[in-house]
Amino acid sequence: MLPEVLQTIDSRRHQSVSALTEFLSIPSVSTKPDHAADMRRAAQWLADQLKFACLDVSVMPTGGHPAVVAKNRHQAGRTTVLLYGHYDVQPPEPLGLWTTPPFEPTVRDGAIYARGAADDKGQVWAHVEAILAWQAHGGPPVNLTLLIEGEEEIGSENLEAFVAKHKADFAADIAVVSDTNQFARGVPSITYGLRGLAYMEIFLTAASHDLHSGLYGGAVPNPANVLSELLASLHTSDGKVNLPHFYDEVLELSQAERQMWEGLGFDEAAFARELALPFLSGENGFTTLQRKWARPTCDINGLTSGYQGPGAKTVIPAQASAKVSMRLVPNQDPAKIAAAFEETLRERCLKNVQIKFARHGLAPAALVPIDSAAMKLAAEAVAAGFGKPPIFMREGGSIPVVGLFKKELGVDTLLVGFGLPDDRIHSPNEKLDLECLFAGSRTAAVLYERLSHLPRRDKSLPVLPARTR
Amino acid sequence: MLPEVLQTIDSRRHQSVSALTEFLSIPSVSTKPDHAADMRRAAQWLADQLKFACLDVSVMPTGGHPAVVAKNRHQAGRTTVLLYGHYDVQPPEPLGLWTTPPFEPTVRDGAIYARGAADDKGQVWAHVEAILAWQAHGGPPVNLTLLIEGEEEIGSENLEAFVAKHKADFAADIAVVSDTNQFARGVPSITYGLRGLAYMEIFLTAASHDLHSGLYGGAVPNPANVLSELLASLHTSDGKVNLPHFYDEVLELSQAERQMWEGLGFDEAAFARELALPFLSGENGFTTLQRKWARPTCDINGLTSGYQGPGAKTVIPAQASAKVSMRLVPNQDPAKIAAAFEETLRERCLKNVQIKFARHGLAPAALVPIDSAAMKLAAEAVAAGFGKPPIFMREGGSIPVVGLFKKELGVDTLLVGFGLPDDRIHSPNEKLDLECLFAGSRTAAVLYERLSHLPRRDKSLPVLPARTR
């Protein structure tokens, strides 16, 4: 049956792009309150497509943006596969840097350009196409449960409670997530490690109102000066994160992993060139791949204070704020790191400046043994879908759901991603290569077939979040 | 004649407030290009009032916003007084903190609230009222030349060339500027020292576009991190500005000045309380008045980078920028300081991050001997206008025109200000007390009369800019 399914996928390429274009046209930016209606529209659009694929679909409330949950007709004795993705996208700003508008999907040079093309609507759509194709030939040979959420880009804040509440609905033998990259074009990949995240915001307030920098300068604390000092204090001169006990639990790389990564032939010069950087930089003593995949970071994501218009305003701002996120590695505890961040900055802060914090998402890192039964089946699917066996890589991003599924459902996750490193996710001109979309659908179709052979509840070689929260 | 002039001023209080309300209603924000028409409207409105006072008025192009230039009928043998002010105002943001809108002037509790009320439209208007009153009684007893510019809040960039080009038109025996404060309510004051200014902007660029902080974090330079480090490097831990040779030329306070300032009885606790600060802070080893009036500073006026909306965006910004201004004291050279700022930060900057600079205004500090003939006449005028002899103070702000008039015209400047320290200039809820407006007009009227007795071109005790640029 599989050859026919793959042939159906190949014959529907035009329709696949056309449907994805519709999906990408909906500006489902989860972080912005004024896009709430777009979020509901995107969820409903996806639900309608899944209904067309003969699935039983619900758009379910979560306390935040709704989740789309769908199942084929489950049959006893079959492997149950939980497929996770997200229909929300990052904000598209800065708009001026997009060649074509972020929510007017455009195909050029063999890729579709739009916010969400790779992260994650395009990868979700690759699966939907696979399901549609299977449906045309009697349905997938596994029990499928789809959970497509709307809050991944804002830290999946309601997902844990939602999954916990509907545990029975999400019972599964294995989970599949397609929200990662291949290592390079022509190098299909399976991801076995992810970094975690602790996303913080700092708010400083000094005087009750903005002050004239001539009349008051020198006499009063300037929260923008203080913010700079606090932020600068977050790193040592050799590029390490300067918080107490930050590295205490960091899992060091094994010799075997170092060697495997060296064998990938990562081209640092090409990587720098693509970003228009004269050279790369970061924590001393590690290669670029090691810094991206296995070392924790602390990056400022946003700075706001005082006058931001053209020209000059001689003002001492009353307030200053920064968004700061730390990527975490296996064994680091996000809650502990977040607490240390707050406590340390509070201590370092000038005592006549008020400091407050917000947390925008905590997630532990994840690490997966590469020799499990499920991994082997996934590798066969990628080989069939992309025409070449995959390599095994880690990725620097965070997919909090991996830890969550392990904790709440006892289910391990396969990270089978179809994107490419130059897809510019979270950046202007995000895209997905159409060849990746089509190979992704083929891979998904084969994966359902292969996973039908998975020993049920194979717990011997589990997907391990580095630490259960 | 003077008693009649003062009586006219007193009888026109209502009209004075009404006219000032019109002036303040025009949003003449010089730094914002979209207010160019408002700038022209404000200049024309002022020109119309001065014409009504029988002055010969021109709205003159400058290369930037126009300047309003006006003269009464000059007579040989009379003292010529050059009166300088500005009709442009600071941006009103943040708008949400104004009790009443910044360009809808409102009188409450004996003060008029609007952007520009004290800085500088209200003080300019105090003079116009004095001229109107004199005009009703035969005209002022001096040759008046008014130069009211539209670019003071953006560093008076075109003023130097404008004054140099029209030198003959601005020839004068003495200049008068009313753009400063009294020391406190009930303590009329003459300002004998001002700080200078070097207003810089820093622009950092790293990668060619915003990057995903998971996929790239740790591998690439983050310009927001680098900016924080550069800005933090601008101060030492004891609050000194950390640029090479920054303090080399700083004129230290004399013992006599220290004692005079101690005698002013500045209430640090009340000052902190008014700003809602638990305590004050700044450079170690100096009193608050010393830090405000006689010590140089370095304050961040604006910070911009990355995502500034609500919630989280996991982005490594491609760009980061900061507006930073240094207040300078007598003998510091603004051009030398600006160059050292740029050179030092360029050196300190990570070499795979591009750094660029803009300069938004350079001005030297000014210091005036308090025992000149002109100062004595000004003190008599303030005593008559406010009913109490003035004290002598410095101020922390910058009025670049003082150095400019000395350099281009060889003319010294009297700083006779009518504002109060709590006028919140450059802040939300800027105001001018009506009693200050009226006393200001009286002071101006008396000042013209007193200056008619000034020995012409009294160069023996000049107003000294600390250093000619």
Describe what you observe in this structure.
Two copies of one chain form a homodimer. By secondary structure, the first copy, chain A, is α+β, with helices and mostly antiparallel strands. Chain A has two domains: 2-194 and 365-465, 3-Layer(aba) Sandwich (Aminopeptidase); 196-250 and 296-363, Alpha-Beta Plaits, CATH 3.30.70.360. Helices cover 32% and strands 21% of the residues of chain A. Chain A is built from 14 helices and 19 strands. The first copy, chain A, has helices spanning 2-11, 13-24, 36-52, 121-135, 159-165, 213-216, 223-232, 255-262, 268-274, 288-293, 334-348, 373-386, 401-409, 434-451; strands at residues 56-60, 67-71, 80-86, 106-108, 111-113, 143-149, 174-177, 189-194, 196-205, 211-212, 299-306, 315-316, 319-328, 354-363, 366-367, 391-395, 413-415, 431-433, 464-465. In chain A, the strands form five sheets. In chain A, strands 1-2-6-3-7-17 form a six-stranded mixed sheet, sandwiched between helices. In chain A, strand 4 (106-108) and strand 5 (111-113) form a beta hairpin. In chain A, helix 1 runs antiparallel to helix 14. The longest helix of chain A has 18 residues, at 434-451. The radius of gyration of chain A is 23 Å and the shape is globular. The two termini of chain A are 42 Å apart. Chains A and B meet through strand 10, helix 6, helix 7, helix 10 and strand 11 of A and strand 10, helix 6, helix 7, helix 10 and strand 11 of B. Strand 11 (299-306) of chain A pairs antiparallel with strand 11 (299-306) of chain B.
Quickly describe the structure:
Chain A has helices spanning 2-11, 13-24, 36-52, 121-135, 159-165, 213-216, 223-232, 255-262, 268-274, 288-293, 334-348, 373-386, 401-409, 434-451; strands spanning 56-60, 67-71, 80-86, 106-108, 111-113, 143-149, 174-177, 189-194, 196-205, 211-212, 299-306, 315-316, 319-328, 354-363, 366-367, 391-395, 413-415, 431-433, 464-465.
